[in-house]
Amino acid sequence: MSLTEKVALVTGGAQGIGRAVVQSLLQSSAKVVVVDLNKACGEQCKAQLDAEFGEGNCTFIQCDVSDGDALQDAFQSTVDQFGRLDIVINNAGIANEKNWEKTIQVNLTSVIKGTYLALEHMSKEYGKEGGTIINVSSMAAFLHSPHQPVYTATKHGVIGFTRAMADASIQDDYGVRINVLCPAFVDTPLLHSVEDEENMGKFVKYKDDFKRSMTKFGVLKPSLIAEGMMRLITDTSLNGAVMKITCSKGIHFHTYEPMSA
Ligand SMILES: NC(=O)C1=CN([C@@H]2O[C@H](COP(=O)(O)OP(=O)(O)OC[C@H]3O[C@@H](n4cnc5c(N)ncnc54)[C@H](O)[C@@H]3O)[C@@H](O)[C@H]2O)C=CC1
Ligand SMILES: CC/C=C\C[C@H](O)[C@H](O)/C=C/C=C/C=C\C=C\C(=O)C/C=C\CCC(=O)O
Hints:
Blueprint: E1 7-11, H1 16-27, E2 31-36, H2 39-53, E3 58-62, H3 68-82, E4 87-90, H4 100-122, E5 131-136, H5 149-171, E6 176-183, H6 197-200, H7 207-217, H8 222-234, E7 242-246, E8 250-253
Helix pairs in contact: 1-8, 3-4, 4-5
The structure holds 1,4-dihydronicotinamide adenine dinucleotide and the ligand CC/C=C\C[C@H](O)[C@H](O)/C=C/C=C/C=C\C=C\C(=O)C/C=C\CCC(=O)O.
The ligand CC/C=C\C[C@H](O)[C@H](O)/C=C/C=C/C=C\C=C\C(=O)C/C=C\CCC(=O)O binds at residues 95, 138-140, 143, 148, 184-185, 190-191, 193-194, 217, 244, 246-249.
EC number: 1.1.1.141, 1.1.1.232
Organism: Amphilophus citrinellus
GO molecular function: 15-hydroxyicosatetraenoate dehydrogenase activity; 15-hydroxyprostaglandin dehydrogenase (NAD+) activity
C-alpha cells in the first residue's frame, strides 16, 4: 500500500525496531522524521536512508523525548518542514532499572506526551484531518520477569493509556486511530543490555533466567515488527487494538473479556 503524501514521525527511529519501521515507511513512499537522542546514530541512519531512498524523504531531529519542550519542538519542526502529520510511532524506550525514574519518563511519560502532541497535530478536535498513532509496549506486559520490574510497569501503562485514549478518540470523533504493539524478544541493541549491571542494577542477578526465556521463546527480527507496524498503520479497521508479535504465533492480537459490572 502506498503512503505517498503521508508524513510519519518515529521516536527512537535511529536504530533497532524504530529503524526497521522507518525503512518500511520509506519503502511505502511516506516522508519520515526520525526523532532520536543519539546524534551519531541518527546522522548515520539519515545518510544511509538518503542514499537508498533519495534526499528529501527523511529528516533526523536530535531530541530527548523525555524533554517535553524539545519533543513539542520536534513535532512542530516536522509540520513546518513537511506541511502535515499523519502517522506517529511512539517507540523510543529504555530498560534501566537502576535509574528507574528515567525509565518511567522515557517509556511512559514521553509516550503520553507524544500521543497528546500527535493529537494536537492530527485530531479533528483541533481542526486537523485525522491520522494514526502506534505506541510501543512489550510482551513483558503479559509475561513479566523479576529482571525488569519498572520496565514491565511502564509497558503495562502504555497499554492501559493507549486503550483508554482509543476509546476517547471514538467517542469524541478525533479521526485518529490509536493502537499498541507488543513485541516479544527482538534482536536489537536494547536486548543485549540484559547482562549490564549499569542498567539492570541488583536485578542483573536474574539475567540467566531471562536469557533462558529468550532461548525458550526465541528472538524475533526487527523486520517482522516493522511488518506488524505497517499493518497497524494501514488497516483502517483497527483502533484500541493490542497487537502481539511472538515467535510461536507470529503477528496476532490480544483479546479481552467484554467489560461487565
Ligand atoms: N528489543 C526488544 O526485545 C523489545 C523492545 N521493545 C520496545 O521497542 C522499543 C524500541 O526498542 P529497541 O529497538 O529494541 O531498542 P534500541 O535500544 O535498539 O533502540 C531504541 C532507540 O531509542 C532511542 N532512545 C532512547 N532513549 C531516548 C530518548 N530519551 N529520546 C529519544 N530517543 C531515545 C535510542 O537512541 C535508540 O536509537 C522500545 O520501546 C522497547 O521497549 C518491546 C519489546 C521487545
Ligand atoms: C534488558 C532487557 C531489555 C529490554 C527489552 C525487553 O527484553 C523486552 O521488551 C521484553 C520482552 C519480553 C518478552 C516476554 C515474553 C515473551 C513471550 C513469547 O515470546 C511467547 C509466549 C507466549 C505467547 C502467548 C500469546 O501470544 O498470547
